[in-house]
Every structure is written in C-alpha cells, then in structure tokens.
C-alpha cells in the first residue's frame, strides 16, 4: 500500500490550497486516514482525520485549523483531500497523509502508513 500526497506549494496569507492523498495497493482498508504536519525541530502534529468507512463521515480537527481546513474523501478514487483556507504563516510545514488501523480519529500514535510529505509555505 502506498500513499502519495500532492498539492502543496507557495501561498500568501489568506489564500487557499488543496492537498490530495491518493492511495495505491490491492488491499487497503484502514479505519481512519489523516493529515499531519511538521516543522523543523517540532514533533509531527495531527491536523485533521476522517473515518475511512463508507458509512461514516466522522472527522477530527486540531483546534488551530477548525473553521479553516476541511478534510474529505472520495472512496471511489481512494483519495483523501485537505482543503485549506484562510492560510496563515503558522500553517507553513511539510504535510503528510497517513492511515491508521485504529478507529479513533485522534489517536496519532496509531497511524502506521505514511505518504511522502508535501511542502506548504505561507508568506505574510
């Protein structure tokens, strides 16, 4: 199973960006998928997560991105998205998508499949 993140880039404060995470593999059935971000010298932070069940749209957001970021999925395409709006310089980070076999959205330690990172840089 491979996860491939894309969509990062340069933005100005207030702009929007959309990240995508495509999954590849014959069998892929995590319980949840999420987006993490990391800046130099800091621990990786779970930003948003979504249930990977076709019967649930449960989501989780860290407080700092609530009302600005929206996580979504298209299970027919095995793809997850992160729509980021009202971007701030503090959102600058490498963003990673990840998958977890555990059903708890906010259980960061449970994520064990990772995509490569995509850089998001927000200038003021």
Description:
By secondary structure, the chain is mainly beta. Helices cover 0% and strands 50% of the residues. The mean pLDDT is 95.
Which structural class fits the helix and strand makeup?
Answer: mainly beta
Determine the fraction of residues in helical runs and give it as a percent range: under 10%
Question: What is the makeup of the main sheet?
Answer: 7 strands, mixed
Low-confidence stretches: none
> Whole-number radius of gyration?
13 Å
Q: What is the H/E string?
A: EEEEEEEEEEE
Q: What's the tally of helices?
A: 0
Distance between the termini: 38 Å
Give the percentage of residues in beta strands. over 45%
* β-strand number: 11
Overall pLDDT: 95
How would you sum up the global shape?
globular
Kindly summarize this structure in a few lines:
The chain is mainly beta and 124 residues long.
SSE layout:
Layout: E1 2-6, E2 9-12, E3 17-24, E4 32-38, E5 45-51, E6 59-61, E7 69-74, E8 79-84, E9 93-100, E10 113-114, E11 118-123
Parallel strand pairs: 2-11
Antiparallel strand pairs: 1-3, 3-8, 4-5, 4-9, 5-6, 7-8, 9-10, 9-11
Which terms would index this structure?
single chain, 124 residues, mainly beta, seven-stranded mixed sheet, four-stranded antiparallel sheet, 11 strands, 50% strand
């Amino acid at each position: 199973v491979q996860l491939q993140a894309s969509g990062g880039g340069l933005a100005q404060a207030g702009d929007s960006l959309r990240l995508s995470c495509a999954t590849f593999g014959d069998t892929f059935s995590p319980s949840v998928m999420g987006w993490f971000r990391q800046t130099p010298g800091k621990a990786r932070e779970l930003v948003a997560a979504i249930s990977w069940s076709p019967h649930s749209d449960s989501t989780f957001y860290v407080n700092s991105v609530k009302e600005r970021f929206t996580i979504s999925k298209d299970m027919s395409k095995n793809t997850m998205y992160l729509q980021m709006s009202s971007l701030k310089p503090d959102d600058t980070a490498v963003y990673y998508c990840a998958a977890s076999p555990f059903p708890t959205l906010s259980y960061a330690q449970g994520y064990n499949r990772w995509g490569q990172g995509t850089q998001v840089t927000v200038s003021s």
